[in-house]
Design brief:
Elements (H helix, E strand, L loop, with lengths): L1 E6 L12 H21 L4 E8 L14 H8 L3 H4 L4 H14 L3 E4 L13 H13 L4 H6 L5 H10 L15
Parallel strand pairs: 1-2, 2-3
Helix pairs in contact: 2-5
């Protein structure tokens, strides 16, 4: 017996332009966990999937500087724009692990979005297309790549120097 919690993201819900690798990886970990759940059930192992929304880590410290993320966030309802502290998200994850939950939503209201999943890729694509059409190609090209500390490390490895940004979550 045991329990495994796979961390996915709301990025698994919709396919955001200029975030193709991230969205695909989160959809992939979701699919992995769904398949694993059936494979390990005979051994008494439970598998859960955690769907995290905006979490105030260094990955999104410059959230509002990224045109795609800024556009997506600005078109979300007010509760969906809120950035949650890592400590609060950890509390939700711990509660899910303690309950051996099939799904953990951080924040919990995300469970209400599940029925809308078939239309979310279309909505996200339409919003992004409209929002990004006004930006010059150079701006879009500049902001592609890995976000946060990973993106900065990638730039340094390629000889580029990323701008230094404070690691503080954006204001909600």
């Amino acid at each position: 017996g045991g329990y495994f919690l796979q961390v996915a993201s709301t990025a698994a819900f919709g396919s955001a332009p200029l975030m193709s690798a991230y969205c695909a990886s989160k959809a992939g970990v979701e699919s992995f966990a769904q398949a694993l759940r059936t494979e390990v059930r005979p051994a008494g192992v439970g598998v859960g999937i955690a769907y995290l929304h905006w979490t105030g880590t260094d990955m999104i410290a410059a959230l509002d500087d990224h045109p795609v993320l800024r556009a997506l966030r600005s078109h979300q309802p007010a509760p969906a724009r809120r950035v949650h502290s890592p400590e609060r998200v950890a509390e939700w994850l711990v509660r899910g692990v303690e309950r051996r939950a099939v799904s953990v939503y951080a924040p919990p209201w995300l469970r209400l979005v599940q029925p809308l999943r078939p239309v979310l890729p279309l909505v996200v694509s339409a919003v992004a297309r409209r929002s990004l059409s006004a930006l010059p190609f150079e701006e879009l090209e500049r902001t592609t790549g890995v976000l946060g500390a990973g993106g900065a490390a990638d730039l340094r490895a390629r000889g580029a120097v990323p701008p230094v940004r404070p690691v503080t979550p954006p204001q909600t």
